[in-house]
Amino acid sequence: MAEPHTNLNPEANRFPRQARYILGNEAAERYSYYGMKGILALYITNVLLMSRDEATQIIHIFSFVNYFMPVLGAYVSDRWWGRYKTILYISLFYCLGHGILALSDAFESVDAKTLCLYAGLALIAFGSGGIKPCVSAFMGDQFKPEQRHPPAPRLRRLLLVHQSRFHSGVSYHSLRPQRMGLQLGVRHPGHRHGRGHLRVLARHQVLRHGSTGP
Questions:
Q1: Is 6 helix (H, G, I), strand (E, B) or coil?
Q2: Of 50, 31, 28, 30, whose CA–CA distance to 41 is shortest?
Q3: Using CA atoms, how far apart are residues 28 and 112, in angstroms rounded to an integer?
Q4: Do 134 and 74 contact (CB within 8 A), yes or no?
Q5: CB-side exposure of 50: number of CA atoms within 13 Å?
Q6: C-alpha angle 187-191-192 in degrees, rounded to nearest 5
Q7: pLDDT in tens, 36-75
Q8: Which DSSP category does 123 fall into?
């Protein structure tokens, strides 16, 4: 007996074309975030000449704000902008934060570099946390109604593979840059190579999301 879903559009059995851009956006965001965080303690202690306790305090406050911002991001998305515009606009603050950290080498004084650190981390925490509640939901929006409640085992497997790819990709791009960031931090004490590389990835994140379309 033929399955009731055989008359579905063949596109219903495939991943949405926008998925590659959303996955690339999330991978670039995670890669740049953890790469920056991997050399953050070295930068604070070796360049800004702060103690380890001060570095720990700054990193913990940064992490707290980063994981509190999803509340604001979800509210803005549901109340005003929607998921697509929230991700796009708030990602611009994220890129600006990486840019401020990378450009801190233009200043000679430690005080100026410290101000750049605080401003950059604040923008990164706002950007990274603000888009967090929207990305996976926006990914789900790309699936057609018949794909969201699949009647067939093939479509159920499609959604399971989607979840596996999304979360495994995010996990991979969260682990690898920390090692890479530490290597860059050890080889280049000024850390400008590491932060500049991560700034490019953050800019790439926004460009990929802009290609997705609302």
A1: coil
A2: 50
A3: 28
A4: yes
A5: 19
A6: 120
A7: 888 899 899 999 999 999 999 999 999 999 999 999 999 9
A8: H
Strand positions, DSSP E, the chain: none
Domain boundaries, the chain: 18-212
CA distance 124 to 92: 10
Q: Is residue 169 pLDDT above 70, yes or no?
A: no
Phi, psi of 196 (to 5 degrees): -65, -40
Geometric angle at alpha carbon 212, from 206 and 214, rounded to 5°: 105
* DSSP codes joined into one string, 155-172: HHHHHHHHHHHHHHHHHH
pLDDT confidence tier of residue 126, bands split at 50, 70 and 90: very high
pTM: 0.76
Across 111-127, average pLDDT = 95
Alpha-carbon radius of gyration of the chain:
20
Q: Say how far apart CA 59 and CA 37 lie, in whole Å.
A: 8
Phi, psi of 190 (to 5 degrees): -75, -20
Q: What is the largest CA-CA distance in the chain?
A: 77
Kindly state the tokens that stand for 69. Answer: 């911002």
Residue type, 70: P
The answer to whether 100 touches 119, Cβ cutoff 8 Å, is yes
- Only one residue has tokens 């926006």, namely 138
Instruction: Read off the tokens for 183.
Output: 């290597």
Question: Taking the domain 18-212, which CATH number applies?
Answer: 1.20.1250.20
Q: So what's the pLDDT on residue 94?
A: 92
